[in-house]
């Protein structure tokens, strides 16, 4: 039996769709992962083959004002799960990199997070690798889905209500469907080797800017709201984001034999699901 934390979030919801009755799904109400005693007791009383840790503090800008809270979840929560759970798939982020590269980041490349969110996620990765007996740390990026809060849903909403949108075109990355990410996790689960601890990257194929992504969202949703490309300095945010955070997927494709589709194909499918849900 698997344990999925953060079960009501984007990735947790997609995992529930795929894993069904073969996992137990918990959110903060059942178990606050930042509470060491609660995690220890819960994992002492319930035995799981593997924990898939999708719980996280993901509000990137708010984390700048709440570093303690973000650290409690992203760093310490991950540590407790790894320490008391032993076998874990832990999700991390492209924001552990500073974005100064011009070629896709490999797993062993130097990290240098620019934001509190990125720093606390990096601390979580390290804790998982230190404390778990068996671990896969899976970094991903720019995740969206029909569930929860994400850039794609925000852009869709704004596209329907505003006359035009302004979106940064100087931050480059790879959008990732939470559903495709969930499928890659199932593949990893089936092949995980006891006693091994390793880091992998997974996103959908292809690269784009947030502006390109917003344009694609409008296009695929059949909306004609103009999207205006702007520079990051014209869209000030509390947290600094990397200008370039493309992740190389060579390792996960080689080790796990994954086939990964282009972000635009995945996006079309998700936008259709979001529209079907709204009608
Ligand atoms: N979203 C993205 O673009 C990206 C996400 N990631 C990583 O992928 C993983 C999944 O992200 P995603 O599904 O988008 O995240 P979501 O924000 O959609 O879901 C996270 C879930 O974690 C729960 N949670 C927060 N704090 C706690 C806590 N103390 N104890 C238990 N549960 C808690 C939240 O519950 P509540 O709603 O009650 O707060 C929420 O349901 C995370 O590790 C994230 O860092 C990586 C790259 C990109
Ligand atoms: C909504 C909006 C955002 N932006 C900019 C702000 C920012 O620089 C960029 C991305 O916007 P967001 O703040 O929605 O996305 P952000 O919260 O930074 O997304 C990140 O979330 C965390 C959890 C991750 O791990 C990352 O991989 C990444 O997905 O787009 C615009 O230019 N115009 C807009 O209308």
From TrEMBL:
<dbReference type="Pfam" id="PF04321">
    <property type="entry name" value="RmlD_sub_bind"/>
</dbReference>
<keyword id="KW-0560">Oxidoreductase</keyword>
<dbReference type="InterPro" id="IPR029903">
    <property type="entry name" value="RmlD-like-bd"/>
</dbReference>
<dbReference type="InterPro" id="IPR005913">
    <property type="entry name" value="dTDP_dehydrorham_reduct"/>
</dbReference>
<dbReference type="InterPro" id="IPR036291">
    <property type="entry name" value="NAD(P)-bd_dom_sf"/>
</dbReference>
<dbReference type="GO" id="GO:0019305">
    <property type="term" value="P:dTDP-rhamnose biosynthetic process"/>
</dbReference>
<dbReference type="GO" id="GO:0005829">
    <property type="term" value="C:cytosol"/>
</dbReference>
<keyword id="KW-0521">NADP</keyword>
<dbReference type="GO" id="GO:0008831">
    <property type="term" value="F:dTDP-4-dehydrorhamnose reductase activity"/>
</dbReference>
<comment type="similarity">
    <text>Belongs to the dTDP-4-dehydrorhamnose reductase family.</text>
</comment>
<feature type="domain" description="RmlD-like substrate binding">
    <location>
        <begin position="2"/>
        <end position="274"/>
    </location>
</feature>
<comment type="pathway">
    <text>Carbohydrate biosynthesis; dTDP-L-rhamnose biosynthesis.</text>
</comment>
<comment type="function">
    <text>Catalyzes the reduction of dTDP-6-deoxy-L-lyxo-4-hexulose to yield dTDP-L-rhamnose.</text>
</comment>
<protein>
    <recommendedName>
        <fullName>dTDP-4-dehydrorhamnose reductase</fullName>
        <ecNumber>1.1.1.133</ecNumber>
    </recommendedName>
</protein>
